[in-house]
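Quick one, tokens below. Sequence please?
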């Protein structure tokens, strides 16, 4: 073998070993991320007590709605308005369709407002929400799906998946893998640092405004209905998208996961219940693909487009692949 051939062979084997090392590192990092969301980790790594106690506390606060002294019509109205603002504008539009899927672009004021509403929902930071959701789409109903009711149980997918403690390394890799283009943006870093302040601040504002408007009893009423009841209702509305719409309903599209369209989740979660449509076409902004599948969040997107705050909205299904054009195999709907 000539000297040149020996040098070429050595270089080639060096490249192969580098590629093998890269692949090994990639597999190890993948395992770190996926294992962070497996159910068995709930017992081995323990509970995230900050999240768990916070969620229990919000549910306990909502129970004060049963105390007649804390009911007020103004409190109920505030709760309903904040439910729509945080759940539809914040989570469905801001965190989900805008951040996680890039179904539309937003001008600065609308972007700030939608992400702020998302922070007021109490569903964590925009970056963690978007990264976890992208993982769900990549692994839906497979190993590593953070909340699959098919692989695990309905309760796991509904809320128990939120309770395990996840390592900072798993969180870092989740961000690096799934939202690299978002993680460095100054506005995202701003909300990443300040998201709890918006939530706690809004509670204090409600308490103080109610007290100023009608005394301490009204202040507590606005807090109970505007924070406790509203947040519990909004939590379960969005959680039903993870649990119920991978279990019950009908399918327009033959996707590889178990996603389904469920009318009552579409009402509670402002259009997100058309989940089989969404899994089939995740980047499309409207979630309703048949004329009667109404999507309340889409109405808000249309309004933002009308006033020039939303643009480049992806609203066209690929030709021949709409809900009325796709051949569906016979399937038993639950
Ligand atoms: Zn899903
Ligand atoms: Zn999605």
């Amino acid at each position: 073998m000539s000297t040149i051939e020996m040098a070429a062979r050595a270089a080639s084997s060096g490249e192969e070993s580098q590629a093998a090392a890269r692949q090994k590192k990639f597999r190890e990092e993948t395992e770190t991320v996926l294992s962070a969301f497996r159910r068995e980790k709930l017992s081995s790594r323990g509970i995230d007590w900050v999240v768990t106690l916070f969620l229990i506390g919000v549910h306990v606060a909502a129970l004060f709605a049963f105390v007649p002294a804390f009911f007020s019509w103004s409190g109920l109205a505030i709760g309903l308005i904040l439910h729509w603002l945080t759940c539809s504008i914040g989570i469905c539009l801001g965190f989900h369709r805008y951040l996680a899927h890039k179904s539309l672009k937003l001008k600065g004021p609308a972007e700030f407002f939608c992400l702020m509403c998302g922070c007021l929902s109490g569903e964590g930071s925009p970056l963690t929400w978007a990264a976890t959701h992208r993982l769900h789409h990549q692994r839906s109903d497979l190993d590593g799906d953070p909340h699959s009711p098919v692989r695990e149980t309905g309760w796991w997918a509904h809320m128990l998946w939120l309770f395990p403690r996840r390592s900072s390394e798993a969180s870092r890799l989740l961000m690096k893998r799934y939202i690299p283009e978002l993680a460095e943006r100054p506005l995202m870093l701003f909300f990443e640092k300040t998201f709890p302040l918006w939530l706690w601040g809004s509670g204090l504002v409600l308490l103080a405004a109610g007290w100023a408007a009608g005394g301490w009893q009204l202040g507590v009423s606005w807090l109970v209905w505007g924070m406790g009841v509203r947040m519990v209702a909004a939590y379960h509305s969005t959680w039903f998208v993870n649990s119920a719409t991978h279990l019950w309903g009908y399918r327009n599209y033959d996707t590889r996961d178990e996603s389904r369209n469920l009318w009552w989740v579409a009402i509670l979660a402002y259009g997100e219940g058309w989940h089989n449509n969404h899994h089939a076409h995740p980047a499309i902004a409207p979630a309703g693909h048949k004329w009667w599948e109404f999507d309340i969040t889409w109405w808000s997107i249309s309004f933002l487009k009308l006033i020039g705050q939303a643009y480049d909205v992806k609203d066209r299904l690929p030709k021949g692949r709409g809900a009325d054009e796709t051949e569906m195999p016979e399937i038993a709907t639950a």
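Strands lie at 105-106, 310-311. DSSP finds 14 helices and two strands in the chain.
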